[in-house]
Structure formats: C-alpha cells, structure tokens
Design a protein that fits this description.
Elements (H helix, E strand, L loop, with lengths): L4 H12 L21 H17 L5 E10 L2 E11 L1 H4 L1 E8 L8 H16 L4 E7 L3 H9 L3 E10 L2 E11 H5 L11 H8 L3
Parallel strand pairs: 3-4
Antiparallel strand pairs: 1-2, 2-3, 4-6, 5-6
Helix pairs in contact: 1-2
Bound molecules: coenzyme A.
C-alpha cells in the first residue's frame, strides 16, 4: 500500500530496531538506514519518504510502498521513474524486516512492483542493482527474469564496492507475467505522475 503516515508510524519500530539493513552493507550512499543513532535513523528515513512524496513531477518521481504481511507493515518497496515519459524505464528498491527474510516475500514484493510498472504504468524496461555480495537481492532479480547489465562502482558507508546491474525488458516481463496481482488506484496514480 502507498506509504501513508499511519503505515510509516507502524513500520518505524523495524527501522528503529535496525532490522531494515543487512551485513554486508547492502545500500549505496547516502542512506538514512545506516545512521547509528536510532532517533536520527528514523527521522532521516521519514524525511526521505516525505521528500519523495513532496517532489513528484512528471520528470522524476519516487513511489514509496509499505509491504504488509497479515496486516502488519514489514518493509518497503519503492519504484522510481526518471524521465519516465521519455524512456519508459523504472528502477526498484526494497527492504524487508530481518525477521521475515528468506521466505519468498522479497520475491513477491518485486513481482508486485513490476506488475505496477509494466501492467499499470506501461513501462518498457525495469532496472535494479545490488552489491555483488548481496545474494538475496541478486537472486530475486535473477529469479524475476532480469538479465545482467554490467557492473558499476558505488560507495557504501564510504567504502567502494561493485554493484551488479540488472535489466528486465517489457518482453521479458510479458513472458512471465503474473495474473494473480491486483492493482488499485491506477488512474489516479497516472494522473498524479503526469503520465501521457
Ligand atoms: C533483498 C530482500 C528484500 C529479499 O527478500 P527475501 O524475502 O529475503 O528474499 P526471498 O526469500 O524472496 O529470496 C529470494 C532468493 O534469494 C535467496 N536468498 C535470500 N537470502 C539469501 C542469502 N542470505 N544468501 C543466499 N541466498 C539468499 C533465496 O534463496 C531465494 O532464491 P531462490 O529464488 O533461488 O530460492 C531482503 O533480503 C532484504 O531486505 N535485504 C536487505 C536490504 C537489501 O539488500 N535491499 C536491496 C538493496 S539493493
């Protein structure tokens, strides 16, 4: 569901308890979830979501979704469109509470956001990337049908690391699209994003 303040309020204990990250560090800098002080971490994380929500334009948008399992907020799944009207490309980003990993939920989250991108918004290509030593994220991308698309350097907590880049075309997605995912509010969403 869209990341409302109520849902973020229910999710914040996961961020406060440090359950939104992993070892080795999975995110490239800058990243609020790396903050050592739990209060600073939660504040900067919330500010990041609010910034995204408050700066939606047709040229750049970031949609933040809260992942619910049995009604409980347990993670986030984001979708980013940079000049989407020109390129039709999206990038995804996600995290899940440490308590619930390795049960297939991350894979479900990815399928859901891909459905929004391709079936809902008409994307032509989805991309993502993860550090080479992030087996979970890279396995989710591989299993979802993405192809390797080179590597790129990035820093995490100030240290350089190589990221695996992944690319999924619309044709790739059509070949394996799911028919058990329901999208709600697409018309309003497209209107808000200024999608042509
Ligand atoms: C990435 C993340 C959302 C995946 O969620 P998840 O629910 O644990 O993933 P799944 O259970 O769907 O697992 C997907 C695949 O990864 C594999 N996997 C998961 N964790 C793994 C690990 N630690 N080591 C090796 N393989 C792993 C699973 O076996 C599965 O592979 P399969 O489809 O071949 O069986 C979650 O691990 C997470 O929040 N990680 C920290 C944040 C992060 O890395 N975000 C991405 C930043 S780029």
């Amino acid at each position: 569901m869209g990341a409302t303040d109520d849902l973020l309020g229910e999710l914040q204990h996961v961020v406060r308890e440090g359950k939104a990250t992993a070892d080795p560090a999975p995110y490239d800098d800058p990243m609020s979830l790396y903050e050592e002080d739990p209060n600073v971490r939660v504040r900067k994380w919330l500010q990041g979501v609010w910034r995204g929500r408050g700066s939606v334009t047709p040229d750049f948008w970031r949609l933040h979704f809260v992942v619910l399992v049995e009604g409980q907020p347990v993670g986030m799944q984001d979708l980013i469109g940079d000049q989407f009207n020109t390129f039709g490309t999206v990038v995804s980003f996600s995290w899940l509470s440490t308590d619930l990993r390795r049960q297939g939920i991350g894979t479900e989250m990815r399928h859901a956001i891909l459905h929004l991108a391709f079936a809902g918004l008409g994307a032509v290509e989805a991309a993502t990337e993860a550090f080479l030593d992030n087996p979970a994220s890279n396995a989710v991308s591989r299993a979802a049908g993405y192809h390797e698309n080179g590597v790129a350097w990035a820093t995490r907590r100030g240290e350089p690391g190589l990221m695996q880049r992944w690319r999924l075309t619309r044709d790739d997605w059509i070949g394996q699209q799911r028919h058990d995912i329901e999208l709600l509010g697409i018309t309003e969403c497209k209107e808000t994003l200024g999608l042509s």
